[in-house]
Amino acid sequence: LAVGPVVSPPHSVDGFVKEFLRELNFGTGVLLSRATVNDQYVALARTVAHYLAARWLEGGRTRREAGVKVVGYLSAEYLLGRQLGNALLATGLRDIVEEGLESCGINLSTLRAQEVEPGLGNGGLGRLAACFIDSLATLNVPCIGYGIRYEYGIFRQTFVDGRQVEQPDAWLSLGSPWEFPHPEAAVQVDFGGTTEEYVDEDGTPRRRWLPSWNVLGVPYNYMVPGYHNGRVNTLRLWSAQATKAFDLQIFNSGDYAEAVRAQTFAENISKVLYPEDSTPQGRELRLQQQYFFVACSLRDFIERELPADFDLHDLPERIIFQLNDTHPVIAVPELMRLLVDERKMDWDEAWAVTQKCFAYTCHTLLPEALEVWPTEMLAKLLPRHLEIIYQINDGFLREVREAFPGDEMRARRMSIVTDYPERAVRMAYLATVAGAKVNGVAELHSQLLRDKVLPDFSEYWPEKFTNVTNGVTPRRFIRLANWNFTRLINETIGTGWVTDLDRLAELEPYAEDPEFRARFRQVKAANKERLAKLLVARDGIVLPEGHLLDVMVKRLHEYKRQSMKLLHILSTYEQIISGAIDPATVTPRTFVFGAKAAPGYKMAKETIFAINAVAATLAADERTNHLLTVAFPANYNVTLAEKLIPAADLSEQISLAGKEASGTGNMKFALNGALTIGTDDGANVEIRELVGDDNFILFGMSEPEVADLQARGYNPAAVYESNPLLKRAIDLLASGHFTEGNRDAMNPLVMDLLYNDRFLALADFQSYIEAQAKVDELYADPDAWSRKAILNVARTGFFSSDRSMREYLDRIWHAKAL
Ligand SMILES: CCc1ccc([C@H](C)CC(=O)N[C@@H]2O[C@H](CO)[C@@H](O)[C@H](O)[C@H]2O)cc1
């Protein structure tokens, strides 16, 4: 039977309706008349997937046949957001589907609201991975994203008495119509055991691993559609299952729990995402997760994407694996094990291949976020990999000693294996030694990587270090999230910007056009109204009209300084209630927070409690609640970001200089016409350089000034004593005013600010509130404000993740579009 190419269903209302009803009846197995909203949503998702599947399958075939170089993106996190809207956008099916559903008496936006977003990430790193794979598909670059199909994603955040309470994220409970499981392609992953020397059939002494237990990795494929280009790449997420799910003998012996113990034990590996986004807990299960998805991915690519007779010496011509931070770095010894132990390749040849197959992106500057794994744990879980890491390190240190004879301190500093505070493997060092390239995610970050985090390595391999400033996908974060603005841009400069964001520059002249500025303000007002409707329905939060929307949304972390934002609010409030300032001179503001704290991060949770306590008090205070409102919708995620960002006037990017690697929220706000108040940190520096000092509200110490102050010694209590405004704000916080008179409730936060303040919030406070006064001044002239906001949009096309991908392709991956 000559089977031709797979064809997608007809792009017509009738064609769609036929496909949808067939899926509803035969796929979901319900009648239209009895279908629940979830039934309708699942059937719709499946139907849209059919339209994509044709290109997906054909794309996979051509990719394999063409033998082109593929980008393998290895990431422990993907913060994808809802899929339906993006799939409708990519396929151009939106209007057909809306009309088709209408004819069935179904409302498309009702079904879109039914989708649970896959929260398979913590924050910046996970969302960046999602933006990157979207851009690679839109740029027609063959890419496979590899990761973990966590059964439970990032926890659902609720507030109880103002305190964060985590709920499990059972995102799969209502079905998962976007995934395609392939149990037949399961991969066995080994763990534990020992290693031994042996002599193989041709008399060569070799080492081998004798693992003691194993699990199965089952791949679930997700489609990653390109925008209007017919390309559909693959995101392959691995789920752990027991090799031997059920032990009947044990069951028959009546020990039912024991009979399924292997199953539960195995499943634990992909059970839940670790909710930390900066301080690794060093749990063995986390290492199991990392090795699990890496081992599945490498074997999957080598055995299923390459011809059976492929010579692995040529592997670098077919794949480049990007290591998304240190989380997948165990892939380096795993590839060496596959090449040397299984494929009997010579060590040096295998090492040469390995060094061409990996590149490493670092996403942090916090020393505590750089993962190190105790050799004791590695010896227990991955004994052969530890041996290989030692051998890699020996070879590397031999080189270093030759290059710097007698400089034993340098060799000790650069060793992948450290003995202090315990014997452990520094994964960032392993990634740097093995990677063809090492990059930071913003100019300042990459410079600090060279100068402060990996100075010995950048001195030894200057050409290995580079920078690729982050970006965001304009499809989701402008075209999809901000339809009101999209329409205005399309009417003004056409639609080309969606895949060529530099074209936003064509908006520059319209910043001088009063009529365009007025329409821009209408767009912002409409987005605020839409947000207000959502927040009252979602959280019972009432957004006052006509307020400056001052938005700070990101993970809760002390270096991001949500506490300093709170001090600004407290200071303004204190001055009003104390009569220090005339309320009539105050710019009415609503401060919107969105932030999850890692469950074990105490000070972050104290800050959330403080923000909610202040919010409640301000809401009840007749003297101020028409002027100052604090809104803290719970469970900040991609879906809420899509509604919040287009409505914002002011974007808070106030981290301590030298701490935020890049930030990507900052880019999304600028591209949606918000002004940024920020420090010279991460990508803020590049945003300010592009939009111009007049259109960016800069404040605070620069990174060198921070380093200088820390070197000189910093005493936050002295700053508190010397700044009356700051003193009154902190005293009010400590007074019990926000906690029914309970003066102890705020102690942890107040004491930390006064006697620790690791991220210098008090030191930057004065500069910050002066900058905020400038914001009030600027906002007093809405037309001037709009002009600056429009210039921000026109000048930030650079921050497209398409541009980031082009840089990776040219300077790191040396791969190209099909
Ligand atoms: C092991 C615990 C852990 C988990 C996640 C991470 C991530 C690297 C943290 C993260 O998301 N970093 C953010 O990455 C973004 C994308 O590059 C940057 O824009 C942010 O500045 C950076 O904080 C570190 C440590």
From TrEMBL:
Keywords, comma-separated and alphabetical: Carbohydrate metabolism, Glycosyltransferase, Pyridoxal phosphate, Transferase
Annotated Gene3D superfamilies: Glycogen Phosphorylase B (3.40.50.2000)
Source organism, top-level taxon: Bacteria
Family: Belongs to the glycogen phosphorylase family.
Annotated GO MF terms: glycogen phosphorylase activity; pyridoxal phosphate binding
Taxonomic placement: Bacteria, Bacillati, Actinomycetota, Actinomycetes, Micrococcales
Catalytic activity: [(1->4)-alpha-D-glucosyl](n) + phosphate = [(1->4)-alpha-D-glucosyl](n-1) + alpha-D-glucose 1-phosphate
Cofactor: pyridoxal 5'-phosphate
Group of enzyme by EC: transferase
GO cellular component terms, semicolon-separated: cytoplasm
SUPFAM superfamilies, alphabetized: UDP-Glycosyltransferase/glycogen phosphorylase
Function (record text): Allosteric enzyme that catalyzes the rate-limiting step in glycogen catabolism, the phosphorolytic cleavage of glycogen to produce glucose-1-phosphate, and plays a central role in maintaining cellular and organismal glucose homeostasis. Phosphorylase is an important allosteric enzyme in carbohydrate metabolism. Enzymes from different sources differ in their regulatory mechanisms and in their natural substrates. However, all known phosphorylases share catalytic and structural properties.
Pfam families documented for this protein: Phosphorylase
Listed EC numbers: 2.4.1.1
BP-aspect Gene Ontology terms: glycogen catabolic process
NCBIfam families linked: P_ylase
Positions where N6-(pyridoxal phosphate)lysine occurs in the chain: 668
The name this protein goes by in its record: Alpha-1,4 glucan phosphorylase
